[in-house]
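Supplementary Methods, section 5.1.

A reviewer requested that the exact input to the structure prediction be made available. We therefore reproduce it here, unchanged from the version used in the analyses.
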Amino acid sequence: MVSQEFDIVGIGNAIVDVISDVNDEFINQQELRKGLMSLVDLDTIKSLSNKIEIKANVSGGSVANSIVALAQNNIKSAFIGKVGKDEVGNSFIRGLEKERVVFANQAQSDESETGRCLVMVTPDAQRTMSTYLGISQKLKSNDINEDVIAQSKITYLEGYLWDLDDAQEAIKKAIKISKKANRLVAFSVSDVFCIERFRESFLNLVNNEADIIFANEEEIKSLYQKDSLDDCLKIISQHDKIFAITLGEKGAMIVRKDQCVKIKAQQIENLVDTTGAGDLFAAGFLLGYINGENLEQCGNEGVIFASKIIQIYGARL
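The structure derived from this sequence is encoded token-by-token as follows.
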């Protein structure tokens, strides 16, 4: 790869989002947990896919969604993930390249297929997700492009990676390279279920490695095992880090030491699908941050991005 500087590189699951409209009855019949993400095997994802009408196929994955939104706003962006040598994998890479994101890895052959996430949207705009991680869950240390990490101002990681067998070693390697090059690390905790499984590891990363942390209100309370957001704020204000916390219809809160900036929510005229709201909030915030804006401006960018994405299908603007 030609040596070049990047504003940001994301490391995450390389997943293709398969989006469909369903009703509550379907969710109940399939014994799915409404509004939550479940990991499933290839047979299950294929069986579910056969029972629904597909509205759209979009290259997805949490961090990948954020990276694409940044690239769409002229931020020099790269992505590291793992896809198979199959049509779904090819479509994922094409989706990134079309948005001028450098895919800093190679498609690889394996008995697994490229990962995909079936996003089932109910009439109340809640999304229930069944995810087949496939080959994306086999991210290893040797998949980490050291040059790209060292040449990126920010390395952005997602909590979903912790479910992967060898990815924790890959993450440690990426953080080490980033820190050695005096770069920044951003981290999205991703999901309450991820936090419950890997709380100690997440806390270590948040306390010692990450410079910018993204979470929603429930996630930050789960991370610190507190019942109130105020109790969490007392803890995080002791760290010289940026915590960007989304509060749903209440907007967002940006915290850095004793500075706490409250961001108002945008007026939503047509709530369609909440998929990607957190991903796009992170993208908007990072866009402002990379462009040198203050915390309030960064938070406002995040809320604007999130409000746009929930009025359309999918997690890409």
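The mean pLDDT is 92. These observations are discussed further in the main text.
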